[in-house]
Amino acid sequence: MEAQNGVSANGDTMEHSGNDAASETRDDDRKIFIGGLSWETTEDNLKDFFSKHGEIENVNLKTDPNTGRSRGFAFVVFKAVDSVENVLNAGDLTIQNKKVEAKRAKARQGKVFVGGLPAELSEDEIKAHFGSFGKIAQMEMPFDKVRNQRKGFCFITFENESAMKELLRNPKQTLGGKEVDVKKATPRNDQMGFGGGPGFMRGGPRGAPRGGMMRGLLGAKK
Questions:
Q1: Furthest-apart CA pair in the chain: how many Å?
Q2: Which residues, in sequence order, are bridge partners of residue 13?
Q3: Which residues pair with 26 in a beta bridge?
């Protein structure tokens, strides 16, 4: 089936999201980035400092995976959107005698694979349906040149990852009276192995001898 072998123009494949998306919450609009932190600043220090601007849901201080030492920046998620505005309007921020930078965290995009699309559905109808979950940055509608028709799947990239997560709460969507499958799309890694399936490249690994050269090498070892 085409839906099982869907690959987008930039090499993305589809992946089951399971129940992970259902457990996620929208937090991009409640998240701020804090940079220029002192190496000694801890998550507790950040909680104490930013709690005066609003109730905090989560603090994520980024650390070096090898040393465990702070990398000098963190993300703070508040429980209310207004708290982010409070921080951004607070002027200069100083934590442990060090001036730090605070700005709205950049939202990550989210991409999904949609399989089993009815042929009679127009691109505008598909866009209207999925656009109700969030602003769409890009739609990829693969076309079958042999059959001269659109293929039965597409890829949709949302400007905000939270829209994708909201959509994946219900991976079975109904369009044009037909149920379609929605899965998270992930980049294909062309360096992982052999064969022609999604996520793999054809032939042997780069640099490996082929054809007569390979047979010659094998013969020399006999």
A1: 77
A2: 186
A3: none
Planar angle of CA 123, 126, 127, nearest 5 degrees: 85
pLDDT digits 0-9 by tens, 42-62:
999 999 999 999 999 999 999
Residue 30: exposure state from Cβ atoms within 10 A (0-12, 13-18, ≥19)? buried
Confidence of residue 105 (pLDDT cuts 50, 70, 90): confident
Residue of 44, 32, 8 whose CA lies nearest to 138: 8
Partners of 95 in the beta sheet?
98
Residue written as token pair 């064969």: 195
Beta bridge partners of 185: 14
Q: With contact defined as beta carbons under 8 Å apart, do 2 and 152 qualify?
A: yes
Closest CA to 35 of 86, 89, 77, 75: 75
What tokens were used for 44?
Answer: 């507790």
In angstroms, the CA 123 to CA 17 distance is 25
Q: What global pTM score does this model have?
A: 0.50
Which structural domains are found in the chain, ordered by start?
Answer: 2-23+108-187 (3.30.70.330), 28-104 (3.30.70.330)
The candidate with the shortest Cα–Cα distance to 21, out of 161, 169, 128, 186, is 169
